[in-house]
Amino acid sequence: MFYRENGQFKSNYRSDQQIFPVAQDRYAIYVLIAAAFLVVPLFATNYFYQAVLIPFVILALAALGLNILVGYCGQISLGSGAFMAVGAYAAYNLQMRIDGMPLILAVLGGGVFAMVFGVLFGIPSLRIRGLYLAVATLAAQFFMDWLASRAAWVTNNSSSGSVSARQLEILGWHISTPMEKYLLVLAIFCVLALLAKNLVRSAIGREWMAIRDMDVAAAVIGIRPVYAKLSAFAVSSFIIGLAGALWGFVHLGAWEPAAFNLDMSFKLLFMIIIGGLGSISGALFGAAFFVMLPLVLTLVPHAIGLPLSTATVTYVEHMIFGALIVFFLIVEPHGLARLWATARQKMRVWPFPH
Amino acid sequence: QAQEQYVPALVYRTGQFAPLGVPWADGKLDYYKLVNARGGINGVQIKYEECETGYDTARGVECYERMKGQNGGAPGFETQSTGITFAVSDRAPGDKMPVFTPGYGLSQSVDGEVFEWNFPLLGTYWTAADSIIQDIMKKENGNLKGKKIALVYHDSPYGKEPIPLLQARAKKEGFELILLPVTAPGVEQKSTWLQIRQQRPDYTLLWSAGVMTPTAVREAQATGYPREKIYGVWWAGSDHDVREIGQGAKGYNTVTIHNTAAKGAVHDAIKTELYDKGQGSAASAASLGQLAHTRGMVIAMLQVEAIKAAQEKFGKDKPMTPEQVRWGFENLDLSEADLKELGFEGIVRPIKTSCKNHIGEDWSRIAQWDGSKFEVVSDWYQADQSVVAPLVKEYADRYAKEKNVTPRDCSAVQ
Amino acid sequence: MAFFLETVLGGLMTGMLYSLVALGFVLIFKASGVFNFAQGAMVLFAALSMARFAQWIPEWLGVQSVWWTLALAMAVSMAAMVAIAWLIERLALRHLVNQEPIALLMATLGIAYFLDGLGPLLYGSGVYGIDVGMPKEPIFVLESVFPGGILVSKEDLYAAVIAMVLVAALSLFFQKTRTGRALRAVADDHQAAQSIGIPLSRIWVIVWSVAGGVALVTGIIWGSKSGVQFSLSLVALKALPVVILGGLTSVPGAIIGGLIIGLGEKLSEIYLGPYLGGGIEIWFAYVLALAFLLFRPQGLFGDKIIDRV
Amino acid sequence: MNNATAPAGAKTILEVNGIEVIYNHVILVLKGVSLVVPEGGIVAILGGNGAGKTTTLRAISNLLKAERGEVTKGSIELRGERIEALSPADLVERGVVQVMEGRHCFAHLTIEENLLTGSYTRKDKGEIAANLDKVYNYFPRLKTRRTSQAAYTSGGEQQMCAIGRALMTNPNLVLLDEPSMGLAPQIVEEVFHIVKDLNSKEKVTFLLAEQNTNMALKYADYGYIMESGRIVMDGEAQALASNSDVKEFYLGVGGDGRKSFRDVKSYKRRKRWLA
Amino acid sequence: MTTRNIGEVILDVKNISLRFGGVKALTDISFDVHEHEIRSIIGPNGAGKSSMLNCINGVYKPQEGAITFRGKTFSHMNSRQVAEMGVARTFQNLALFKGMSVIDNIMSGRNLKIKSNILLQALRIGPAEREEIVHREYVEKIIDFLEIQAYRKTPVGQLPYGLQKRVDLGRALAMEPQVLLLDEPMAGMNMEEKQDMSRFIMEINEEFGTTIVLIEHDMGVVMDISDRVVVLDYGKKIGDGSPDEVRSNPDVIRAYLGAEH
Ligand SMILES: Nc1ncnc2c1ncn2[C@@H]1O[C@H](COP(=O)(O)OP(=O)(O)OP(=O)(O)O)[C@@H](O)[C@H]1O
Ligand SMILES: Nc1ncnc2c1ncn2[C@@H]1O[C@H](COP(=O)(O)OP(=O)(O)OP(=O)(O)O)[C@@H](O)[C@H]1O
Ligand SMILES: [Mg+2]
Ligand SMILES: [Mg+2]
C-alpha cells in the first residue's frame, strides 16, 4: 500500500537514471548506510566486529568483485582465492619493501597487482567458455597456492612462510580497535560499491552483460569481446585483490598461504550465487548468508544445550549447510536478491495478489 | 559453590586430519575429566569447552576470538595447528594470552625473551629433526659424509619447519639434503617416490599429515623403498597412520616426545574412573595408550600443572587469569617424582621451564612399527644445542625485527 | 632410460586412476548437463560404506568367507549409492529442471557438503582400510634389458585394466542403447526431453546410480591404495584437468585425458620440478589442460560447442 | 465467453476449465482459460504475441514447472481424468505430446537419433521401426539429413524433426506450438497437409497454437481466439474465418479484399473488443 | 515508392562461397544492394539466407569471394569493423541480451558511440553522465517509434516473442545504421503484428533513408514492400530481380513459391 512509485514522476532522464528510482528505496538506503556507520558502533561488541561484521564487509567486497566477472560478464571463475592472495601478498610486499608506504597505497597496490594477474589469467577466456573456463581458472588458484608457499620472495623471505601486516595507519589515524577496522572496511566497501554500481549501469556494464548473454550478437553491435572480457577480469580482480589485501591486513593480521585456498574461491562463488548473480546487493546478501549461517549453526545447538559432540555438530552443520544451499537454489535459482525483488514486487501490488 | 576454571579446547574432530584430531581431543578431555573427578585443580573444577576448527585457520581464529574472554577469561590456548598458532601468536601479546604448542608451533618460539606468550613445550620440529638425525648417525656410526637424506614434506608452513635445521645439520655433517615437497593433501605421490627411487637417498624423513602418511608408506612399499629407512615426525607416527598397512609398514620409524608404548598409572586411573563408568570421551577404552590419545593427556596435564603452578604463587582455590597462567607455564618444574605422582612416570621426562627457555625439555626417542604396533626402539635423544640454539636465536631475532617486538630481558625477571 | 620409462609408465598408470574419477564427472555431465562437483564426495561416501560394511558384516552376520564379505559389502554399498541417487533426484534435481548450468553446479556443491557431513556421521571419521586383495609389492619387468629392471606397480596395473573395462562398457552403453540416447538428449535440453516423454526422474536416478557405481569402484581402488579417509574426496581435484582436457562429454576422452595428464604431470614434476622448487604437478596439470583447451576449447574429444545465430 | 462448450456430436478428449497460470509467483498470465478439444478434431488457438497460447499448451502438457510457472486455479481433464499432477512422461504414455515452440531439437544428436528419442516410451522394436518409416515417409527431407547433427540443419528441417520426433511417440493428441514459424511457405503448406493427413488417416487429435491465422483456419475445425490471457472468441473455423473482425485483424483482409502491406503505414487500427 | 530516390550501389557481394566441412552453405553468390532500397532475400529453409547475412557482417568468414561496402572491398572483416562502418542487423532466432532490460538492450546498440572511458564511467561524472543522457534520449525516441514504452524496464527474457523481435530491431536501429540487415523479422507474428512491423521497416527506410536487406518467408510482405528480391536455393542464386520478375521466374516457383503464388 505504502510502497508505490505512483505519483513519483520523472521529468528528466537524469532522475530516471538514479540508482534507486523509487524514493522509498532511496531513503531506505540512506538510512541503512547511516545505521551501518553510526548505529552499529553503538552496540556491537568486539567479538561481533571480528567474527561477523569485518569478515562480512570484506567478503561482501570480494563477492562484489567476483559478481562483476561472473554475474555481469558471465565468465565463471574458481580462482578468486588466488586473486585475493595476490592482492594480499602484493600489499604486504609493497609495505615491507618500500619504506613509509602508506597503508591505503599498499592496499590499492595490492588491487593493481591482482588486476594484472587477473588479466593474465583472463586471457584464456577469449577462447574457452563456460565450465571449461571455470575449471581452467583453477590453474590460477593452484599456481598461486604453490607460488606463495614455494617462492620465498612472495613472503619477503619470512622464515615460516606465514606473513603478518604492520600496524594499520592512515594519515596518522592508528587503526587498532575492531570498531575502527570495521569503519575502515565499511567505508572502502561503500566507495567501491558505488563505483561498481556506476560501472555496471554504464556502457561498460552493458558490454559485459551483452557478452554474458549473447556474445555473437554483442560482437555484431560492435562490442569487442577481448576488451569486454579483459576489462571485466581487470575490474573484478582489482576489487577482489583489494578485498584480499583487507582480508590479510585487517581481518587476519597474519596469514599463511592456506588462507586463500580453493575453499575461499568456492565460498565466494557460493556467495554470489546464493546472493544473486548480476546484482550488487546480491554480494551483500550472499556474504551475510555465509558469514552468519555457520555461526548460527554453531551457536544454536550450543544455546539450546544439545548434548552433541563437537564432531557431530560439525557434521550436522555441514549437512544443513549443504541442504540449505540446495534449498535456496530451488526456491530461487537467481538468488536472495531476486527473492527480495519478488517480495518487493508483491509489496508494490499489496494487498492484491498480482 | 565450587570455583570453576574455564578451559577452552580447540580441536579438530572433522576434516582431513580428523583421524589424528579425534584421539588427541579425547586425550585432552579425558584428562580434564579425570582431574575434575579427583576434585579439580586444588578444588577448582575445570569447565572445559570444545571448539571445532577443522584444522582451518580462519575458524580457529574465530574460536579464539569468541572464547578468549568468555567465562572469566581463558587461561590459554592450545591451537592444535601450526597455521592457527601463527595467527594467534600475533594477537597473544596484545590479548595477554598464553599460547602453548607442545610438539609443534614456531620452532624459534623456544626463545622466551622474544616470545613471551608462546610455549612450545616438550619439543619443536627442530628438536624432532635433530633427534632423527642423531638416530641415523648412530646407525651410520657417526659418519654421514656423502650420504643422502631426503625430506618428503607437506607443502605448508608445518612441513617446511624442519628445513632450516636440516640444512644446518647437512652442512655440519656433510650429507646431501634432498627436498621433496608434496602438495596437500598428498593422495597422489607417485612422482615423489619415483624421485626417491631414482636418487636412492639413504634415509627419508617424512613431515606429513593426514592421508599423506599412509600414502607415502604405501608408495614406499610399491617402489620397494625400505620402510626401516623412513622416519616420520611425531604427527605422522600414530597407530592410525599405518594400522591399515599392517605388515607393509613394518620397520617404519617415528620420533616421539613421549614413551608411546608405555602405559602409566594415569591410564589405569582413566580407565577405572572414567571408561568403566561409561564417562570416557573416546568410543572405547581401546583408545587408551594410543599415541595421539596419550599425547592429548600429556598436553592437558601440562596445562593443568601450569595452572597449579600459578595457583601456588597467586593463590589456591580460585581460577587463574591468563597472565597468571603464563607465569605458571614459565615456571613449570615437574620432577621425576612429580610425574610419578601424576601417573606419567616413564611417559614423559621431567620438565623445567624458565623465562629464557619455553620448551622445558627437548628429549625425544624413536619408535618403530612392528607390523601391529609401535615399539620404542631407541634411547632418549636430546636435541643438540650447538645446532639448535643458534638457529633459535637467529630466527627469533628475525621475528622480533619483523614484528617490532622488543625482547624482554630475562635477567631482570626472577 | 630405465628411469624415464618408469616415469612414463608410472604417469600412465596414475593417469588411468584419474580417469576413473573423471569418468564419474563425464557420465553425469553427458547425461544431464550437470557438472557434478559432488563426485569426490560420492567417491568418499562409497569408499566409506565399502570399508565399514566389510568390517561390520562379519561382526553382525558372522560371515567367515572373505569373498562373501566383500561381495555383500559391495552390494550394500551399491544399494546405498542408489539410495543417494534417488534422494538427490527427489530432493534436488527434480526441482531444478531447466535451470542454468551454474545453478546446478552449485547445487552439486551443496550435495557435496551434505555427503561430506553424512559420510563420517554414519561411518566415523577414522582411517579405514579396504582390502580386496590388490597386490602391493612391485614387479620388475625387462630386467634383461635394464639393470634392475623397470618397476611396475601391480596394483596400478589392475586398476588400469578395471578402468579400461568400465570405460569400454560405458561407451557402448551411451552410443548403442536406448537409455544412452535418452541420456544424451536430456543433457541437450531438459524440457524437450520431458516433452517427448523421457522420464527425467528415472533417467536421473539411473545416471546418478551409475555414477555412484563408478564412484564405488573408484573408492575401492583408491581406498585400497591410500586408505579411506576424508581426503579421498579431494582426488576429484586431480581429476578435473582430466575431465576438461578429455572433453566434458566424452567417455573415451576421460581415458585419453587421464593418460596425458598423468604423464605430463609426472614428467613435469620429475624433470622440471627440481628447477622450480618442486610440487608443481598439480598446477602443471591444469596448465597443461589449459594449453590444450586453447586449441580445442571443447576439450580433445568433447562435443563441439555449437553456437549459431 | 468463458465456458466453452464442445462442438456437438464429438467425444471430448481434452477439457480445460478456467485455468489460471502464474509465472515466478508474481506474473499472472492466464486469467481463466477454458477450452474443449473433441476427439479426432483439429482445434486452433489463435492470438497475438503474449496472448498466452504457449502457456496454455504448457499447462496441458505439464511443462510449466521447468519455466517456474504453475497452474493456480482450474482443472485440466484428459478423457475425464484430472491430469494436472501427472508428469509429462505420464502424459506421453497416455498419448499426449507437445511439440514445443522454437523447435528444441537435441543439438548434439543426429536427426535420426533425435527421432529415436521420441520412441523412448515405446518398447516394441517393430513398432519403432514402423514409426520411423512413417516419419521418413511424411518428411522425406529428414531421411536425406538423417546423419547430420540437428544443430547444423536449417530451421525448416529442425521443425520437421521436432514434429517427427513427437510422432514417434504414437500420440493421439498432439499439442503443436507454432508449427509454421520460420518455415518457407511451401513447407508450411506441407506441414499442415501432414497434420490433416495424420488427423484423417490416423485419427490423431491436434491442438495447435498459431499466429498464421490464415493457415490455421483453413485446416482446423474449431478455433479459439486469445488475447492477454483470456479467450475472447471461439467458434467453428469457417465461422471465424468469415467473421469480419477476424478478417480484419487476423487475416489482414479488409472489406475490399487483401490489403497491401504498403498501405498499412497510413493508418493504425485498434481492436474493438479491447479496452 | 516514388518519394525515395534509390541511389548507387552501397553493398556489393561478389562470388561468395561458404562451406562448413562438407556442407556447401553458399556457392558463388553475387548480388548488389543500392542505397535506400529494400532488398529481400528469399529461399527455402536451409538455402543459406542467414549464412549470407552472417558473411556480410563478419560472423562467418566465407572461403571465397569479396564484399564491397561503399567502395571498400574486403573479404575478411571482423564484426566490429562492420559495425563501425554502419551495418546493423537483427537475428532470426532472437539474439537479445536476455538478462537485460529493454532499455539496456537498446542502449547497448549505442555503445559504439560512447566516448568516455571506464574511469569516467565508474565515477559517473561530467561527460560520462551527460553522454548517458544524450544517448538515453535517442533510445527513448526509438522506444516511442517502436511503441514499446510500456516495457521499458522489463527484462527482455520475459517479453513475448513478437515484442522481443521489436527490441531486436530497436537495438539495431540504435546503431544509426546505413544498412540494416533483417533476418525474418516477422516470423511468429500474426497479421496485425506483421503489419506493424512492415510499417516500421518502411518508415525506417523512408525517413532515415536506411538501406534494408530483408529475409522473410511471408511472400505477401516481401512482394509488397521490397524493391528487388534475390532468391537462393541450396546455396545457389536462382533468381534476382523485381518482385514481379521473381514471381514469374519458373525456377523460383519450382523451388520455393509453389504453384499457388
Ligand atoms: N517463463 C516465463 N516467465 C515469466 N513470464 C513468462 C514466461 N513465459 C511467458 N511469460 C509471459 O507470459 C505471457 C504469455 O506468454 P506465452 O508465451 O504463453 O504467449 P504466446 O501466446 O505463446 O505468444 P507468442 O505468440 O509470442 O509465442 C507473456 O506476456 C510472457 O511475457
Ligand atoms: N555454423 C554452422 N555450421 C555448420 N553448418 C551450418 C552452420 N550454419 C549454417 N549451416 C548450414 O548451412 C546451410 C544454410 O543455413 P542457413 O541458416 O543460412 O539457412 P537459411 O536459409 O537461413 O534457412 P532458414 O530459412 O531455415 O533460416 C544449412 O544447411 C545449415 O545446416
Ligand atoms: Mg508462444
Ligand atoms: Mg535463416
From TrEMBL, chain A:
Domain of life: Bacteria
InterPro entries (alphabetical): ABC_transp_permease (IPR001851), LivM-like (IPR043428)
Entry annotated with the keyword Transmembrane helix: yes
CDD domains: TM_PBP1_LivM_like
Membrane-topology annotation of the record: Multi-pass membrane protein
GO cellular component terms, A-Z: plasma membrane
Record keywords, A-Z: Cell membrane, Membrane, Transmembrane, Transmembrane helix
A molecular function (GO) term: branched-chain amino acid transmembrane transporter activity
Subcellular location: Cell membrane
Membrane-crossing segments per the record: 27-44, 50-69, 76-94, 100-123, 130-148, 182-200, 230-250, 270-300, 312-331
Name of the protein: Branched-chain amino acid ABC transporter permease
Organism: Lampropedia aestuarii
Automatic annotation (TrEMBL), chain C:
Keyword Coiled coil in annotation: no
Membrane-spanning residues: 12-29, 34-54, 66-89, 101-123, 157-174, 203-222, 242-263, 275-295
Main location: membrane
Location(s), subcellular: Cell membrane
Example of a GO MF term: transmembrane transporter activity
Gene Ontology BP, a term: amino acid transport
Annotated GO CC locations: plasma membrane
Keyword S-adenosyl-L-methionine attached: no
Mode of membrane association: Multi-pass membrane protein
Domain of life, source organism: Bacteria
CDD domains per record: TM_PBP1_LivH_like
Record keywords: Amino-acid transport, Cell membrane, Membrane, Transmembrane, Transmembrane helix, Transport
Family note: Belongs to the binding-protein-dependent transport system permease family. LivHM subfamily.
Protein name, UniProt field: Branched-chain amino acid ABC transporter permease
Source organism of the structure: Lampropedia aestuarii
UniProtKB/TrEMBL annotation, chain D:
Swiss-Prot/TrEMBL keywords: Amino-acid transport, ATP-binding, Cell membrane, Membrane, Nucleotide-binding, Transport
SMART domains in alphabetical order: AAA
Biological process, per Gene Ontology: L-amino acid transport
Keyword ATP-binding: yes
Gene3D superfamilies per UniProt: P-loop containing nucleotide triphosphate hydrolases
ABC transporter domain location: 14-253
Statement: the UniProt record of this protein carries the keyword Iron: no
Gene Ontology MF term list: ATP binding; ATP hydrolysis activity; branched-chain amino acid transmembrane transporter activity
Superkingdom of the source species: Bacteria
Chain segments annotated as transmembrane: none
CDD domains membership: ABC_TM1139_LivF_branched (cd03224)
Family: Belongs to the ABC transporter superfamily.
PANTHER family in the record: ABC TRANSPORTER SUBSTRATE-BINDING PROTEIN, HIGH-AFFINITY BRANCHED-CHAIN AMINO ACID TRANSPORT ATP-BINDING PROTEIN LIVF
Protein name: ABC transporter ATP-binding protein
From TrEMBL, chain E:
Domain ABC transporter: 11-259
Keyword RNA-binding: no
Pfam families: ABC_tran, BCA_ABC_TP_C
Protein's name according to its UniProt entry: ABC transporter ATP-binding protein
CDD domains per record: ABC_Mj1267_LivG_branched
Gene3D superfamilies reported for this sequence: P-loop containing nucleotide triphosphate hydrolases (3.40.50.300)
InterPro entries: AAA+_ATPase, ABC_AA/LPS_Transport, ABC_transporter-like_ATP-bd, BCA_ABC_TP_C, P-loop_NTPase
GO cellular component entries: plasma membrane
Top-level taxonomic group: Bacteria
Keywords attached to this entry: ATP-binding, Cell membrane, Membrane, Nucleotide-binding, Transport
Entry-linked PROSITE patterns: ABC_TRANSPORTER_2
GO MF terms, alphabetically ordered: ATP binding; ATP hydrolysis activity
